[in-house]
Design the sequence.
């Protein structure tokens, strides 16, 4: 259990803590800020574990499998909680979640033939926009232009989700061809 894998496990452990805090309101008016801090810490573990694993040659099968799963657990849990809190529409979340399932399916099929499909820039932009959107939705600041910025990030994240899926499928359509 190396450091990158410990960070992945920490991210998984933080998911139910995040869900409990954001949905229970156990910290009163400060619950959203505590939830936001937990989400940011969990998101940073995602950034760090990959960088550390690659830099120090600590890539493991556990990490290859669990890191993307932990990412999906964090993002999907946050989005579902935000639907519950009426901060994002369920149809938007469905599009985001379905995109992740399709990409995961592509990666599984590719892995069967020994092919690894790396994330492209569209996927990275999608992830960054989703993280910013989720942070804005958790903070739920309704002052000045922030509600407009938050709404814009919903649409930006949704647009990048769809574009990244289309590009991913177009770039890797040969994965689905039968040999």
Sequence:
């Amino acid at each position: 259990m190396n450091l990158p894998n410990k960070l992945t496990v920490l991210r998984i452990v933080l998911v139910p803590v995040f869900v409990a805090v954001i949905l229970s309101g156990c910290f009163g008016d400060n619950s959203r800020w505590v939830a936001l801090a937990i989400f940011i810490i969990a998101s940073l573990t995602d950034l760090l574990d990959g960088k550390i694993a690659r830099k120090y040659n600590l890539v493991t099968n556990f990490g290859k499998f669990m890191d993307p799963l932990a990412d999906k657990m964090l993002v999907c849990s946050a989005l579902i909680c935000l639907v519950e809190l009426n901060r994002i529409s369920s149809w938007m979340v469905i599009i985001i979640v379905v995109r992740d399932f399709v990409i995961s399916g592509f990666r599984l099929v590719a892995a069967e033939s020994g092919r690894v499909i790396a994330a492209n820039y569209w996927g990275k932009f999608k992830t960054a926009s989703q993280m910013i959107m989720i942070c804005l939705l958790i903070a739920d600041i309704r002052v000045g232009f922030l509600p407009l910025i938050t709404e814009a990030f919903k649409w930006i994240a949704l647009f990048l989700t769809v574009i990244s899926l289309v590009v991913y499928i177009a770039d890797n359509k040969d994965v689905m061809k039968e040999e």
The CA atoms of residues 61 and 67 lie 10 Å apart. The domain at 1-86 is CATH 1.20.120.1760 (Four Helix Bundle (Hemerythrin (Met), subunit A)). The mean pLDDT is 93.
